[in-house]
Design a protein that fits this description.
The complex is a heterodimer of chains A (437) and B (368). Chain A contains 14 helices and 17 strands. By secondary structure, chain A is of the alpha/beta class. A 6-stranded mixed sheet of chain A has the order 1-14-13-17-15-16. Chain B is mainly alpha-helical and 368 residues long. In chain B, 59% of the residues lie in helices and 0% in strands. Classes of the chains: A alpha/beta (437), B mainly alpha (368).
Chain lengths: 437, 368
């Protein structure tokens, strides 16, 4: 195993709580009766729905078409009938058209034919990734095809695969590394064919030591030139800026992309989707989701089709306990609070957490200028000052003088704030209102 | 019922009220030592200080309709004021100090988080300049009273045991000597002052002046809570472990003071550079209490790591100036007050280096 690395500035060490679902093998969710497939599965413009009410859809069929450059195709996860098209709010708060699909009792079983991706050209693989609707599955859901289209003259020195999984509770990538190591590694090689990097690095945090060793062993056995880089546990290591700092010791300048420092970052879950796309021409319509949290009866890692309602996942995991206080889509540091358990999953849904009361709201005090937010900010920002400016409506000043737009809402500041000030909430608001002006 | 909140959905172990409790716990060993060596009057002083600070907080809460007793910050302020009092002080002085600290220094500026000066420091300085003679009258700790030296010099017979002996602090002895024009080895001025047998032995073995050893362990005259450097350091390590204070302020404060004392400390005594004593000045007086517990106050110190270092070095510098060239033996609290004033300015101009910050390229190059 290589010497472990990490990023240098800020960060926090929340308890990782991965034990809850760590040892649960990935199981397939029994098909629900109804799916709600949103046309906004990704960052960017929502896809254009290609089906109308009453149309039949088949498994893997294109049902939503990418509507602009930054957008992605959406495919039907099942054989079924579209019963309704309506506006649906997602966990992120985005509202978009969604196809409500009644799932047929009889399901076909396509995607068994094996394709040889090694004989395909770079352009063909890039086109395949686009047509299979693949997006970043770490949560940001940036269309992978856009990320992989390297402008002429730009060279990719590093392809960095993000297996940090630094959010507490989540174990979906960890289970993939253990159970589908060969597939994940092959998917990485497909991605490598698309971007032609000089080096391939997989960054994995040290709380997944067995996964690091397993990947290393399999990469060696399969003869792939993939380096597995162990990372010291620190949140937010799974952010691409911190990941690149840890893995290749380069900093992405403010407002620039990884490509500007010669790197492409891809989530580990995404590489499994890329593998399935290349090998079976199977579009991205299902994913591994961790169902965990202290208030769920039987934590699980499940493969579920996109559009599964959260209530189905909760029922499959044995329901919630009485002390349930909050439902979270994603990880506890950056995930979204869910108000309605009928909300459907999307391509970026990495976890569904049922949490008991963890934050004591009575502990709210005025800012005592302790400076913890400044010292823990991985971006080197001054959250205390930005928050004060936003409170007084000075959004432009917060943006221009204190680089509010560099904040990625990782939550380190609010996590450490002893006065429990809702800093991240303030920054989300400040960005929105500041952009409008 | 399900709650919906913005991320993050988990929170770290620290909260403001809990941190205040930890500070109280960290201060207790040094306080208890002070009460042990100075006796009942010290206990009363500490209790009166804390009670009047809490009472002030409660009464002002009634006025402003904002109740802030539950954050425990008034107890910390009261305890620090008690620790900063000489043991035989008349009880009304700590009462005045506590009321001044809570009402004037903290409340008038907007309460917790909005005050520009450390309330305990403000309270101490207010009573120090109002009641200078009472605030400068110290007594010897219990551990020095048994010393044969004290008994014989005081001329007491064995069967008369007084409650307390008045005794000067090492720093005030040095200051008095200096004002009388004494020069030479600073420690010569202390010769003949009481010292514990324990410190003499240790001092002999390690080759350290026994007065520094006594000051380290807390066998010296001084304010109730400041005498035991050892217990204050232990309290500081506890706060460091709990993540409430960082190493930067105490280390840079004491370090910069120590370096200046070493380089220039001998000069007022007619000695050359690099001849100043270090250990005794560091361990005696209010330096440990100030550097570990009062200069690390969250509210009145800079928020950036670089700012903290500038603040601490400033504190060390002013402490050195006030102690060696001022008219008073002590300077820690005034030094901290001075730097409290500088804090908003430091925070305005000292910024953190941002992630991915690139220096703008010079325009001259573009012109070419």
């Amino acid at each position: 195993m290589l010497k472990s690395a990490t990023f240098s500035r800020g960060g926090v060490h929340p308890a990782d709580k991965k034990n809850l679902a760590k040892d649960k093998s990935i199981v397939r969710l029994p098909l629900p009766e109804e799916l709600i497939v949103s046309m906004s599965q990704h960052l960017g413009a929502p896809a254009k729905a290609l089906k109308a009410k009453g149309d039949t859809v088949s498994k893997g069929e294109l049902i939503g078409q990418a509507s602009s450059f930054i957008s992605a195709d959406v495919h039907s996860p099942v054989d079924g009938v579209v019963t309704e098209i309506r506006k649906v709010e997602l966990a992120s708060g985005a509202v978009a058209d969604a196809l409500v699909i009644k799932v047929n009792e009889e399901q076909t079983n396509p995607f068994t034919e094996i394709y040889d991706w090694k004989n395909q050209s770079r352009e063909e693989i890039q086109a395949l990734i686009k047509s299979m609707g693949i997006v970043g599955m770490g949560g940001a859901t940036f269309p992978t095809s856009v990320k992989f289209s390297i402008p002429l003259g730009k060279k990719v020195e590093y392809l960095v695969i993000n297996g940090a999984e630094c959010e507490p509770y989540l174990t979906c990538d960890y289970r993939l590394m253990l159970e589908k190591a060969d597939e994940v590694l092959e998917g990485i090689m497909v991605a490598a064919k698309a971007v032609e990097p000089e080096n391939i690095i997989v960054g994995v945090e040290l709380n997944k030591k067995d996964a690091i060793e397993h990947l290393e062993e399999r990469a060696k056995a399969l003869g792939y030139p993939i380096i597995i880089q162990p990372l010291k546990m620190k949140y937010p290591q799974g952010d691409e800026k911190q990941l690149l700092k840890a893995c290749i010791n380069r900093e992405i300048p403010s407002g620039k992309l990884p490509l500007d420092i010669g790197a492409v970052v891809c989530n580990l879950g995404t590489t499994f989707a890329i593998y399935e796309a290349a090998k079976f021409h199977k579009p991205l319509f299902e994913r591994v989701i961790t169902i965990s949290g202290e208030s769920i009866n039987e934590p699980k890692n499940v493969i579920a089709p996109i559009g599964t309602k959260f209530s189905e996942l909760i029922n499959f995991a044995g329901g919630t306990k009485d002390d349930l206080s909050e439902l979270v889509s994603g990880g506890p540091m950056m995930g979204f609070g869910v108000s309605d358990d009928q909300t459907p999953t999307v391509k970026g849904s990495s976890g569904l957490l049922a949490l008991p009361l963890t934050i004591d709201d009575s502990k709210s005090f005025p800012c005592v200028s302790c400076g913890k937010c400044v010292q823990h900010c991985p971006m080197g920002l001054q959250p205390n000052r930005m928050f004060r400016l936003i409170k007084h409506g000075k959004y432009q000043e917060a943006m221009n003088e204190y680089s509010l737009m560099d904040c990625k809402e990782c939550g380190c500041c609010a996590y450490t704030c002893p006065s429990h000030i809702p800093l991240v909430q303030g920054f989300k608001l400040g960005k929105k209102l500041g952009r409008k002006k | 019922m399900i709650k919906v909140r913005t991320s993050p959905h988990i929170h770290g172990p620290l909260s403001t009220d809990k941190s205040m409790l930890y500070v109280i716990i960290a201060l207790l060993p040094a306080t208890l030592w002070g009460i042990y060596v100075f006796g009942l009057s010290a206990l009363i002083t500490v209790l009166v200080s804390v009670a009047s600070a809490v009472l002030a907080e409660y009464l002002l809460g009634k006025v402003s309709k904002e109740y802030t007793i539950n954050d425990y910050s008034a107890i910390v302020t009261g305890l620090l004021i008690g620790m900063n009092m000489p043991p035989q002080i008349p009880f009304y002085i700590p009462v005045l100090a506590s009321f001044f600290a809570i009402a004037v220094v903290k409340w008038t500026f907007g309460g917790l988080g909005a005050n520009w000066a450390n309330p305990a420091i403000g309270g101490r300085i207010f009573v120090f300049f109002s009641f200078t003679s009472q605030m400068s009258a110290f007594s010897l700790p219990r551990t020095l009273m048994g010393s044969a030296d004290v008994i014989s010099r005081a001329g007491y017979a064995n069967h008369i045991v007084p409650d307390a002996f008045s005794g000067a602090t090492p720093l005030s002895v040095l200051k008095t000597g200096l004002s009388m024009g004494m020069t030479g080895d600073q420690y010569n001025l202390l010769n003949g002052r009481p010292v514990t047998d324990f410190a003499s032995k240790i001092g002999e073995v390690l080759g350290i002046n026994p007065f520094a050893v006594d000051a380290f362990f807390g066998n010296t005259a001084g304010c109730i809570g400041e005498v035991s450097a050892l217990l204050l350091i232990l309290g500081g390590l506890f706060l460091l472990y709990k993540g409430i204070i960082a190493w930067r302020i105490p280390v840079c404060f004491i370090g910069s003071f120590g370096i200046l004392a070493w380089i220039f400390g001998g000069v007022p005594y007619g000695n050359g550079l690099f001849s100043g004593e270090i250990l005794l000045p560091i361990f005696s007086g209010g330096l440990m209490l100030g550097a570990i517990f009062m200069a690390t106050d969250w509210v009145t110190t800079p928020t950036t790591p670089a700012g903290e270092i500038i603040f601490a070095i400033g504190c060390g510098f002013f402490t050195f100036l006030l102690r060696y060239f001022g008219s008073l033996p002590e300077g820690v609290s005034l030094a901290i007050l001075l730097m409290n004033m500088m804090t908003p300015t430091i925070d305005r101009y000292v910024k953190v280096k941002k992630f991915g910050f690139v220096k703008p390229e010079k325009k001259a190059k573009e012109a070419k």
